[in-house]
Amino acid sequence: MIMTNITTMSGFLLMGFSDIRELQILHALLFLAVYLLTVAGNLIIIIITTADQHLQAPMYYFLKHLSLLDLSFISVTVPQSINNSLMDNSYISHDQCILQVFFFTSLAGAEMAILTVMSYDRYAAICFPLHYEVIMDPSKCQWAVIAVWLSGSISGISYTTATFSITFCKAKIIHQFFCDIPQLLKLSCSNDYLAVIGVAAFMCAVSFMCFTSIILSYIHIFSTVLRIPSAEGRSKAFSTCLPHLFVVSFYISTGAFAFLKPTSDSPTAFDLMNSIFYTVIPPTLNPIIYSLRNETMKEAFRKLLLGGKFTRKKAFLSSC
């Protein structure tokens, strides 16, 4: 396809990992394996946190929504990339790209919000255990989750509107395996991308406030945990907090690096690998991290594997 046709076509070309057919097939198979593992892990968490009476506390209620977000998040980019590699066709239509940007930014914003809510939940549980049920009552948990999804939607609408108000006048080649906003900005020939910069600056400020809130929560959590007299109590508290802190740190650091790093005209393998770190790895690791470090989750998972029936007694968050 000649350059003029690439410039004038309605869609975009996603230049992913390789032009070599064998490597494209390998990439598709690896992504398919990771995708199926992620879908299975997050679906299991959604099922057992819904069905098991022992997993109706706020922590598991928020974990269920994190899994739902992760399941949706990885489904935005990976299936399209698998299809492109298998079909040896890097084309993505303009409408598909719009939807991908909208859902990607919406779910990314919502994930940041749910991680912040989860840190506050752990703060309330560990620092104010006697008042925990009052602080995190079912109605407040429901409103928190509504706020999470609304904040994600606002982020998605803002980014999508600003991004696709740009006039794309360069060759519509995106050096990524999905419609990446920094790569889209490179296709503009004028200053009409400044709206995107403004949205990104605002969202960065909001993300920084969320990150600051998370850090302050964990400062209080760790100072409280260290005062627990029993080693078993400290170990139990750390086992629920450290995985969450790891997920937050990994997700924010890789995402911030990708969006703050200047885009290059010749993207390297490192750029592609970093995009995998914040689009594919967190949704895959979350079910493993939260399941393997939690005895109640492991017991519920064993019950599911053995075909045991979950009892649905009235629990703290059964109404959510």
Automatic annotation (TrEMBL):
One GO cellular component, as annotated: plasma membrane
GO molecular function terms listed in the Swiss-Prot or TrEMBL record: G protein-coupled receptor activity; olfactory receptor activity
Record-linked Pfam families: 7tm_4 (PF13853)
Domain G-protein coupled receptors family 1 profile as annotated: residue spans: 41-290
Membrane topology qualifier: Multi-pass membrane protein
Domain of life: Eukaryota
Role description: Odorant receptor.
Stated family: Belongs to the G-protein coupled receptor 1 family.
Protein name in UniProt: Olfactory receptor
